[in-house]
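agent> call fold_tool(seq_1)
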Amino acid sequence: MSKTIRQPRTKRQHKTPHPLSMCLSPTSLKTLFWWLLLLGILTLYIFLGLGGLTAPTVIAAVNQSESTEILYRSFAKLNDQSGQVWQVVLFKQIYPGQAQTVNLRIVGFPGSAELLHPQPLKITTVTGKVLTATDVFLDEAPAPTIGQYDFKDILPQLSIEPLVLSISVPKDTINISVPQSVVKEWQKVMSVEG
């Protein structure tokens, strides 16, 4: 009979694998890393893009047309305090042999409040300076939502800073915020020699 010597049994040490390593290989981990990095970059672009939506929308251009007059103008669509959109147009007219005029026209879209005439336009700067422009439409405007104001003496007094335009309407006041970029455009229109 042969004698067998048995070695005492030792417990095998079981190493507990990391929870992620049970389901992901090294290549899967790399792929997951790149997908998460791409997701982070896309999220950043989305948040940066949405931040731009809160800035005021400005559509401004300087145009010149020649016939018997020269006309320079700047257009902008701006919101009032209630979110109503107004078209704000600054224009400079030069007629041969006459003095130039500089006017600011404010046009409300359908559903806007009716403007009172003749009522001055109040311009308030960020620094608190208040200027008043006279109403060009002394009796009646072409439409109830249109106002036009003499800006020839006002514009040289304005520095390039945001403004608030205040217009009287029945039982209320409309306040339109004008960003610095639009005021800069107005200064450009004013400085063009005709």
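agent> call fold_tool(seq_2)
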Amino acid sequence: MFDAGGTLLAKAEERFVSLKRQAWRAVLFDGSDQRTVLVENTQGTPVLVIERPKTTRATWVSTPDGALHGSIRQDGYQWRYVLLDASEQPVGRLEGNKTARKFKVLDNAGAHVAQVDKKWKGAATELLTTADRYAVTFFSTVPDPLRILVVAAPIGLDLMLYEGKDVPNFLDGLSP
């Protein structure tokens, strides 16, 4: 994650996945697998954990010690997601366009407080890799936990919408 000037702010990396599973993701499709992404600051200190359970159109955002910030969940309409705090109360929503590349972030009052955009990186990169780039723009001061959920939204959306390459379940028992 970089700021507008290109300064590194944090790194995100999927954890708890074998090298064999990672290699197979480039070839086979099965988007139902559980995913866990650890976000670390520039000093390598974990700051967020973003998890998508198996076969779910939702992600949970927590601290490294397990305290829940909230979740991002599809609300029944394609490209629309509700942002919930740790007690399951709505704090905002994401409304995507038909290509699922641009998402308005609305607070509970319906104000457009931020924008999450998936950047185009070229046909080859889009089709042949899982490398994606997002931009998050805040238009006003946003309180926590909404702000944390907005920062986590690109990873959560990516896990729910685009990271569908995975190895079939019958390979789960094989060692890496």
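agent> summarizing second result for user.
Residues 124-129, 165-176 have pLDDT under 50 and may be disordered. The first strand starts at residue 10 and ends at 14.
agent> awaiting next instruction.
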